[in-house]
Write a structure and sequence with these properties.
single chain, 469 residues, alpha/beta, Aldehyde Dehydrogenase, Chain A, domain 1, Aldehyde Dehydrogenase, Chain A, domain 2, 2 domains, 37% helix, binds nicotinamide-adenine-dinucleotide
Length: 469
């Protein structure tokens, strides 16, 4: 049973003594009714005019980008430098999405059939966009733009943990578009469910945990008129091979572990090391992790902020108590305060899998923890490393560290993951590429670049030769 979230007040995870505004759940039916009413008109608006409207939203967001970045740092604990990066991605996404729309929405003429024909991409109708807390604007925004450009009104439900900053973004978007075309639904899981199961909603883009994604997929399974795109979790591996540039690999793994305090779907949470270089790599990694000391996320130099809330912090504390299936190389800590600020601060941790264990695949190796915790394994050859990398229910992101092109492609050809990188952190996912995972990480509709391919309804038109004047 999902509890109803009606009124709530978030805590600032980096400063529990700050008082944030109270938030109220939005009633869903009036929003969806207004969006449904707006849908036919918005679908008829030419693409050039939709683009103009969205350019005006971009200009307004650009003016307040620094305020929004600071609000992200306060509300979610994401370090300010990263929050500024998120706003940069939000602004950059506009032109990339316009280019995608011009490319993918155009009619396709078909001349090799019995009669002149074309394939059109029609607007589908109201879209529900459900977003997680870790990129409180960027992810919902990245899913909303393609829908809006394709002519689908959007009801955006952000994470309740980022209600303030997401609400501010949504109001700017809404005021740049005709009434009903962009709406904000504040609430928790119950609100997301009510929105997605509303009979007038035609498309859902859900970004969040695999557990919630599966639940949602089951709830809408009977309604074939709904299209569902799922962007879910990960347990992403970095493979460091015997010929790798070890200092640079160690830095990339430390970054992949600690950005957003490990609260990224593509965070590095596993490392598979060639047996020969494992001790040297781990020493360098511990050295690199020294740069990630917990700090007030609103400080421009902060690199490691707190976890999102008490539940996440407690879960990390309990994870650090586990030792089944291996040994701690670096025992992290869940701290109650940093520099006099009470918050959900943590220190990174590295766990070496193997040794005395009865359980060869302990939860620290298999479960997404969403914290700066890395499970380290060793492998003697490429087949063993591949088998380990692919022995996960998730398949989002994987990085291979090697100087050999042949070795990289040998891995890339067999890795079961939607994003595979050579000598880059698993978190290095620019908006210029599609982004989606396999297995429990998604359902084959990658977001990011080209997501617009999945937001329209295809219609095949055929006109009997010479039958129309
Ligand atoms: P979450 O699943 O708890 O919540 C995500 C959003 O879904 C929130 O807005 C929440 O209110 C809503 N929600 C929860 N249950 C729902 C349900 N049954 N039906 C409809 N809506 C529901 O996730 P979170 O803690 O906010 O974010 C962390 C998770 O998101 C991690 O698992 C992470 O890997 C994943 N994530 C994935 C991607 C990706 O692109 N693949 C990106 C970022 C985060």
């Amino acid at each position: 049973m999902i509890p109803e979230l009606t009124t709530w007040r978030n805590q600032s995870p980096g400063n529990l003594d700050l008082r944030l505004d109270e938030v109220h759940r939005t009633p869903i039916p009036p929003l969806v009714d207004a969006a449904t009413k707006a849908a036919p008109g918005w679908a008829r608006v030419p693409l050039s005019e939709r683009i103009e409207r969205l350019r005006s939203a971009r200009s307004k967001l650009e003016i307040v980008q620094e305020d929004l970045a600071l609000q992200i740092a306060i509300e979610t604990g994401k370090p300010l430098a990263e929050a500024r990066g998120e706003l940069g991605a939000v602004l950059g996404k506009f032109e990339l999405s316009f280019a995608d729309a011009s490319r993918h929405l155009a009619d396709e003429r078909v001349t090799d059939g019995p009669h002149p024909a074309r394939v059109r991409r029609r607007a589908r109708g109201v879209a529900a966009v459900i977003a997680p807390f870790n990129f409180p604007i960027h992810l919902g925004h990245g899913a909303s733009l393609p829908h809006l450009l394709a002519g689908n009104p959007v009801v955006f439900k952000p994470s309740p943990s980022a209600a303030g900053v997401a609400g501010r973004y949504a109001r700017i978007m809404a005021e740049s578009l005709p009434p009903g075309v962009f709406a904000l639904a504040q609430g928790g899981a119950d609100c997301g469910i009510e929105l997605c199961t509303h009979p007038s909603v035609r498309s859902i883009c859900f970004t969040g945990s695999a557990t919630a994604g599966r639940h949602l997929a089951q709830l809408v399974a009977d309604d074939f008129s709904k299209d569902l795109a799922l962007e879910l979790g990960g347990k992403n591996a970095a493979i460091v091979w015997s010929d790798a540039d070890l200092p640079s690999a160690a830095q990339a793994v430390a970054d992949g572990m600690c950005l957003t305090a490990g609260q990224r779907c593509n965070a590095t949470s596993r490392v598979i090391l060639h047996r020969e270089i494992a001790p040297a790599f781990l020493e360098l990694l511990i050295e690199s992790l020294r740069r990630y000391t917990p700090a007030d996320p609103t400080e421009p130099e902060a690199r490691l902020g707190p976890l999102i809330d008490r539940r996440a912090w407690e879960q990390y504390r309990l994870a650090l108590d586990q030792s089944e299936g291996g040994d701690w190389i670096l025992h992290g800590e869940a701290l109650r305060a940093v520099d006099g600020l009470r918050g959900f601060y943590v220190q990174p941790a590295v766990f070496a899998v193997g040794g005395k264990s009865a359980d060869p695949r302990p939860p620290l190796l298999t479960k997404e923890l969403f914290a700066p915790l890395l499970a380290a394994q060793t492998a003697s050859d490429i087949d063993q490393a591949l088998a380990e990398a692919n022995r996960s229910v998730y398949g989002l992101s994987c990085s291979v560290f090697t100087k050999s092109e042949a070795t990289f492609w040998r891995f890339a050809d067999e890795l079961q993951a939607g994003n595979v990188y050579a000598n880059l952190p698993t978190t290095f996912s620019p908006s210029t590429l599609p982004f989606g995972g396999w297995g429990e990480s998604g359902n084959g509709k990658p977001g990011g670049r080209g997501f617009i391919r999945f937001v329209t309804a295809e219609q095949a038109i055929q006109i009997r030769t010479d039958s129309l004047a």
